[in-house]
Specification:
Length: 151
């Protein structure tokens, strides 16, 4: 089944892509962010990917990209916001949040990235379908911080 506009607006989706088939990237839409057509085509593939990554081991340390964080009223609010991004980054996945200006910003990054080639073949095939055009939806400065050449 395909995701329609109403589904996308009502759900804060978490979708995944690969960067040069070397590392995995996570995107939280906040119900407003860009979702590639290939992700929208199959709720079943989306759910399979979601379950795969959210059930995975969390053994990486995490770095928070402080300059990309919104303003918070309190430390509790900040911690609540960061929890899901840090949980994903602990799994070795670069975690982005939707921001103003129709872009995603890197919020949390793993110290030890999950290597794309270590994923199951089925998951690699699904993720690699997502066209990765970073200038459309990512602050390109954040992408430059990912050193895929040393993986």
């Amino acid at each position: 089944m395909e995701m329609d506009e109403e589904f996308l607006e009502l759900n804060d989706l978490d979708w995944f892509a690969s960067c040069q088939k070397k590392v995995v990237l996570h995107f939280a839409t906040a119900g407003r962010g860009f979702v590639p057509e290939v992700i929208r085509r199959s709720i079943e593939d989306y759910e399979e990917i979601y379950d795969y990554f959210f059930s995975g081991a969390a053994d990486s340390d995490v770095e928070i990209v402080e300059s990309n964080l919104p303003s918070f009223i309190s430390g509790v609010e900040r911690d609540r916001y960061l929890k899901s991004f840090c949980d994903v980054a602990r799994k070795g996945i670069y975690s982005y949040d939707f921001s103003h200006g129709n872009k995603y910003k890197l919020i949390a990054k793993p110290v030890t990235p999950l290597v794309f080639s270590k994923l199951s073949e089925r998951i690699r095939n699904i993720i690699s379908k997502a066209p990765f055009s970073p200038t459309i939806f990512i602050d390109i400065y954040d992408l430059q911080k990912i050193d895929v050449d040393n993986l």
